[in-house]
Design goal:
Elements lengths: L3 E9 L16 H18 L6 E5 L1 H11 L5 H7 L7 H10 L5 H5 L3 H13 L7 H13 L10 H9 L4 H27 L3 E4 L8 H5 L21 H19 L5 E2 L8 H9 L4 E5 H7 L13 E5 L2 E8 L1 H10 L5 H19 L7 E7 L12 H13 L3 E3 L2 H6 L5 E3 L19 H24 L3 H14 L2 H6 L9 H18 L46 E4 L14 E8 L3 E8 L3 H6 L2 E8 L3 E7 L4 E7 L5 E6 L2 E4 L3 E6 L10 E10 L2 E6 L5 E4 L5 H4 L4
Parallel strand pairs: 1-2, 1-8, 1-9, 2-3, 4-5, 5-7, 6-10
Antiparallel strand pairs: 6-7, 11-12, 12-13, 13-19, 14-15, 14-20, 15-16, 16-17, 18-19, 20-21, 20-22
Helix pairs in contact: 1-9, 1-16, 2-9, 7-9, 11-12, 15-16, 18-19, 18-21, 19-21
Length: 712
């Protein structure tokens, strides 16, 4: 009986969260994973030359590595590099708020000084208790703990973990080593591929859900009753281009075209398979559930452990289906176990599969396919010992062998046939993680609107080739799966508001490039996840004078109050623009007051204004201009189509911003629920939003409001 072939595929991807306005990256995760998982995985594998594997390197990740290597920045990097003694109070607040974003158990707790700083932040609830030495140590610890086991072999880096208290020279050492690690990633994997130990596969360039680009109606194959966007997004040519660009980029970087494809999130369909074959790809991989739902006839227990062939309109393509249980054990379970015991458990399971899948001389294959970067934060040693024990055991076992996908297929095993491929992903064999919820559908509507407008502009009078290329690139970026991952209720991140801003900014850039005004709905936040907790609720009807100055404490002391937390800062400015939002009402009007951290005259000079979104029976945008000063009301339909714009209410804006709008203008009446979001904007760019991941909620008052809310 031939040995069981084990095909590991490690998927490495970081979203392309680049700010189109500044050209800088918003989050630091490419740098962080470069010094940890990306370096560690290659280093451990190099110790075991008989272990062959496949690494899926997404082009948009490789592009970010290239750009960082050429000097790209992110806010975290800039504030890490700045001398601690020169940091402003706002910058220190950003550092104390954000430089603990890592795994507590495996990255903070084991390091005494870092743990002490974390405890101080939690006890003191702010940056005021951090002196210059504390801030410098935090700058360095944040970057240092992301150095994985491979880079800790450097004596200079190892010494820093023992030192704990740092100087500016230590910081420069850490940042220099980090920058070098980023530059080394592509050559490291290129060398392993040249030696034949790894195969590098690809994904469509910006990591889109390919079947949904081809036709969002495919989402109904798994969920026939799914509520889809009104506008049908159907652009198989975009899916084709994302694949072709990936192949071209991969070829430039690694010297030869890729043979294999990991479709983002394992998302496949019959048309996607045909596009992959047409792009010259020989194989692709997806989840076991896709196999089970593609086979109409009975399948036996060995089907999962064989390569399959699918005939497409552009020729055949081979498919490897992953064993979900084995993949998830590495990704989610083994981190909590003793490394040798975990490795032994996996090897034992592989032997059980080998016995079950044995069929004479035909070699069986088991696909172990998972995220190659995120699991290692949960292993106490970054996964080093588990992987070493596992690779050593496989190397010594005559019944097991670790192969690349192409190595296995090159032996020309007799492949089983899949007649028609089910459209689904590796998450519950459906696409409902990325489409179907109101927020997700709103994002697809916005994307479809920009795509349609671009197509119409091309058909009408054409575009210069460079403008067309740039506009299409913005579309391709906006098609990435990651935006839709964070919309809806499936997942949560403290950065969701930032992601939402970036997504809408990408689409706005399409309109700007083609010389068309962006639709007003692109200024409306899509993310509206939850009720924010105000410091106090309204307790009485109010009647402020609206002179734009803080004339009396009593004018607003019975209104609701939302104070912007320090951790809800901005991605564009040091510190925040807004400090407080007051909201109140009488039976005729809604009253709002915005207190800024800066002089309103300075904001006016910079062209900064405010917008208030009132979400009730209708979706209303109130444009608050500091230069006029006026309030313009614009009603938006659920599809984002603007209605007529008109001036409403009364505005005072001198020291503070305060205004009213009639309930009738807002199309609201007593008892209606109201949701409010406040943003600061400059031209089209949204600078800040409050609440960041939700809204302020209350009801339009009725005549008995004061009776029911009276307090002695």
């Amino acid at each position: 009986m031939p040995p069981l072939s084990i095909a590991f595929l490690w998927h490495m991807h970081q979203p392309y969260y680049k700010d189109p306005d500044t050209g800088d990256y918003v989050l630091p995760w490419v740098r962080c994973h470069a010094t940890k998982g990306y370096t560690d995985m290659a280093a451990v594998l190099a110790e075991f030359p008989d272990i062959h594997q496949t690494f899926n390197l997404v082009p948009s990740l490789l592009l970010q590595l290239e750009e960082y290597g050429a000097g790209a920045h992110d806010r975290f990097l800039e504030l890490s590099a700045k001398p601690a003694g020169e940091l402003t109070r706002d910058e220190i607040a950003f550092i104390t708020d954000n430089f603990f974003m890592c795994n507590w158990e495996t990255m903070i707790a084991p390091n005494k000084r870092y743990r002490e700083l974390h405890g101080r932040r939690e006890r003191a609830a702010g940056a005021n208790s951090f002196g210059e030495q504390d801030v410098r140590d935090l700058q360095i610890w944040w970057n240092l703990v992301w150095f994985g086991h491979a880079l800790r072999q450097d004596p200079a880096i190892a010494a820093l973990f023992d030192k704990g208290w740092f100087d500016e020279d230590d910081k420069q050492l850490v940042l220099d080593r980090q920058a070098q690690a980023v530059r080394d990633i592509v050559p490291l994997y290129r060398d392993l591929a040249a030696k034949g130990q790894i195969e590098i596969s690809t994904s469509p360039f910006y990591h889109p859900i390919l079947p949904l680009l081809c036709d969002i109606e495919l989402a109904r194959m798994a969920l026939p009753n799914m509520q889809l966007p009104r506008t049908r997004f159907k652009y198989p040519e975009d899916a084709r281009m994302q694949l072709n660009r990936a192949v071209e980029y991969h070829t430039r970087l690694f010297g030869s075209p890729p043979r294999g494809l990991w479709p983002p999130e394992g998302s496949v369909s019959q048309e996607v398979a045909a596009l992959a074959a047409d792009a010259g790809l020989v194989w692709m991989a997806t989840d076991q559930d896709i196999l089970f739902r593609s086979q109409r006839e009975e399948i036996d227990g060995t089907d999962l452990y064989a390569a399959h062939r699918l005939e497409t309109s552009h020729g055949p393509i081979s498919i490897i289906f992953r064993d979900r249980q084995l993949s998830d054990l590495i990704g989610f379970s083994y981190a909590r176990n003793e490394p040798r015991a975990a490795a032994d458990d996996l090897v034992g399971r592989l032997h059980q599969i080998s016995k079950k899948a044995a069929s004479g001389a035909q070699p069986a294959i088991v696909g172990i396919i998972l995220d190659g970067e995120n699991p290692w934060e949960y292993y106490s040693d970054g996964g080093r010992d588990f992987l070493r024990f596992l690779y050593e055991a496989i190397s010594r076992d005559p019944e097991l062998r670790a192969v690349t996908m192409s190595e296995y297929l090159s032996e020309d095993p007799r492949q089983r046939v899949v007649k028609n491929l089910f459209a689904g992903s590796w998450i519950a064999h459906s696409f409902d993680t990325w489409i179907g919820e109101p927020e997700e559908n709103a994002a697809w509507e916005a994307l479809a609107g920009a795509r349609l407008k671009l197509a119409a502009r091309i058909d009408a009078d054409g575009l210069a080739s460079d403008v067309l290329d740039r506009a299409m690139d913005e579309i391709y970026i906006a098609e990435a799966s990651d935006w839709f991952w964070w919309y809806g209720k499936d997942h949560f991140s403290y950065s969701e508001a930032t992601f939402d801003i970036l997504f809408r900014a990408r689409l706005a850039e399409v309109y700007r490039l083609i010389g068309v005004d962006a639709p007003p709905h692109l200024k409306v936040p899509i993310t509206k996840k939850g009720v924010a907790r105000p410091q106090r609720e309204p307790t009485s009807l109010i009647h402020p004078k609206l002179e734009g100055v803080d004339t009396s404490y009593y004018e607003w002391n019975l209104a609701g109050l939302y104070v912007v937390p320090a951790r809800e800062g901005t991605m564009h400015r040091s510190g925040g623009i807004v400090r407080r939002i007051y909201y109140g009402f009488d039976l005729m009007n809604l009253y709002l007051r915005i207190d800024a951290n800066q002089d309103l005259a300075l904001l006016r000079e910079e062209g900064i204004g405010f917008a208030v979104y009132v979400l009730g029976k209708a979706e209303i945008r109130l444009q608050v201009s500091l230069s006029s000063p006026t309030i313009r009301l614009l009603e938006l339909t659920p599809e984002g189509v603007p209605g007529t714009e008109r001036q409403v209410g009364k505005l005072g804006a001198h020291e503070i911003v305060e205004f009213y709008v009639h309930w009738t203008d807002l199309m609201l009446e007593a008892g209606d629920e109201v949701k409010v979001i406040v943003t600061a904007e400059k031209e089209f760019l949204e600078l800040e939003r409050w609440p960041r991941n939700g809204y302020i909620r209350f009801q339009v008052p009725g005549p008995d409001f004061e009776i029911t809310h009276w307090r002695a």
